[in-house]
Amino acid sequence: MASRSDTELLTEHFGYPPVSLLDQIINTLNALAEKALSSIESGLLNAPPTALGFRPPKYPSSSSQPYDAVTAHRQEVESGVHALETLLFASIDRDFDLFEIVVMRNVLTVSQRDLDWVVLKHYEGLDFSEMGDGISVEGVNELRRRMQSSLRLKTMLEAEKARNEGLLKEMRRLVGGGGIKIEGEKVEEGGKGKAFGFLLKELGLQGDKETPITTTGRFGVSQLEGLRGLSRELRGVMKELGKGEEDEEEEEEKDEQKDWRRERLEYIEGATRKHLENVRGLELGENGEVKGDEEDADVVIVGGGKGKKRFVSGGDGNNGGIKEVENLEKVVEILGIETPGKGKGREEEEGDAMDES
């Protein structure tokens, strides 16, 4: 068999693998053999059964079935052709396997001593002596890094291009197109209703490089009216924005003051409740009422908040407890907590005092 290098050399020379030539020969022979078998089968089937010896018996037996010469003729021809096909293709495969071995060893081969001296036509003029050590891992990694950098640069450039296109589109919208024709975009004429459309109006400006100062001055004067209009529009917008910001700041300050007062009131109520529960041993409900019989209770107090109740014992109460409760009520009133029987006016009058404290 030809060596691997020998096969590669012949493949480059022919333009196709040498074994494909032998495969083509074998396939052609198989096709011819199949056509021959088809012709033989059709010829035998078209022949009359009597010509091939299929005749009905002279003395048919009454016990057996009647003899059908046509059916027997067809069955015999088909089975015979099938057997012939099997034998023929087996013989072709066996013989042409040997043919392939002989050709690959003796015909389609190049000797090893001549292999280094063979130069193909597309190798003429090439000098392989200056080649380095070949491909290395470092070289491949360097190429990969360069490729990744190129891809990142491409992505950045595409993003920059998209941003620039958006900016140019916005500028064209503001100035009204200016007669610039862009493929795939409609050009707006006249610049009516555009914020910066006045920049494109020449307004009779005719000048050249010999009088640049005059031309520039005329252009500046011609744009003053448009700039004044823009300035007026911006003043109105700034006033509206300033009002909105001031309103938001005032609302935030009010919310902060309310939150601070509410937190202070909640802290005082919580401290009072803890004192009554821990020091006096009272069991208070959700709204500050003493749980159980009100007549047996020494004292109950709720510091402030709308809808809350206040109870004082009506029987054998403890005078010391009542005084303590009254003192706590005074403290609560001084701190500005609303107590039952006092309206909102009291809380509003003492609100400033609470803020100063």
TrEMBL record:
<keyword id="KW-0158">Chromosome</keyword>
<comment type="similarity">
    <text>Belongs to the mis12 family.</text>
</comment>
<keyword id="KW-0137">Centromere</keyword>
<feature type="region of interest" description="Disordered">
    <location>
        <begin position="240"/>
        <end position="259"/>
    </location>
</feature>
<protein>
    <submittedName>
        <fullName>Mis12 protein-domain-containing protein</fullName>
    </submittedName>
</protein>
<keyword id="KW-0175">Coiled coil</keyword>
<keyword id="KW-0131">Cell cycle</keyword>
<dbReference type="Pfam" id="PF05859">
    <property type="entry name" value="Mis12"/>
</dbReference>
<dbReference type="InterPro" id="IPR008685">
    <property type="entry name" value="Centromere_Mis12"/>
</dbReference>
<feature type="compositionally biased region" description="Acidic residues">
    <location>
        <begin position="348"/>
        <end position="357"/>
    </location>
</feature>
<dbReference type="GO" id="GO:0051382">
    <property type="term" value="P:kinetochore assembly"/>
</dbReference>
<keyword id="KW-0132">Cell division</keyword>
<feature type="compositionally biased region" description="Acidic residues">
    <location>
        <begin position="245"/>
        <end position="254"/>
    </location>
</feature>
<dbReference type="GO" id="GO:0051301">
    <property type="term" value="P:cell division"/>
</dbReference>
<keyword id="KW-0498">Mitosis</keyword>
<keyword id="KW-0995">Kinetochore</keyword>
<dbReference type="GO" id="GO:0005634">
    <property type="term" value="C:nucleus"/>
</dbReference>
<dbReference type="GO" id="GO:0000444">
    <property type="term" value="C:MIS12/MIND type complex"/>
</dbReference>
<feature type="region of interest" description="Disordered">
    <location>
        <begin position="338"/>
        <end position="357"/>
    </location>
</feature>
<dbReference type="GO" id="GO:0000070">
    <property type="term" value="P:mitotic sister chromatid segregation"/>
</dbReference>
